[in-house]
Amino acid sequence: MRWPAIFFLTLLLALQYPLWLGKGGWQDVHEAEARLEALRAENRELEKRNAELASEVKDLKSGYEAMEERARLELNLVKPGEIFVQIPDAPANNRY
């Protein structure tokens, strides 16, 4: 009676091995879920960036205010008759 119990216990352990330690087992599933969550987080960031870029494209296509703002900030352009004044930032180590 003892040998069949040992045989079935060994058979049960042999069948459980691939589930826990084999390819496609518990560890692989856990690692795949972690990679999936990282990819989802990256996709959320990229979707947010794409929405911002789409909004900017829409502004550039529809109005001149966005183009004027970009020209002023990036190219330091001014309108005729305007005076450009630039105020430097205060140094971080200077306390007043």
From TrEMBL:
It is found in: Cell inner membrane. Transmembrane segments: none annotated. Residues 1-3 are cytoplasmic. The keyword Membrane applies. Its main location: membrane. Keywords: Cell cycle, Cell division, Cell inner membrane, Cell membrane, Coiled coil, Membrane, Transmembrane, Transmembrane helix. The keyword Lipid biosynthesis does not apply. Belongs to the FtsB family. Essential cell division protein. May link together the upstream cell division proteins, which are predominantly cytoplasmic, with the downstream cell division proteins, which are predominantly periplasmic. This is Cell division protein FtsB.
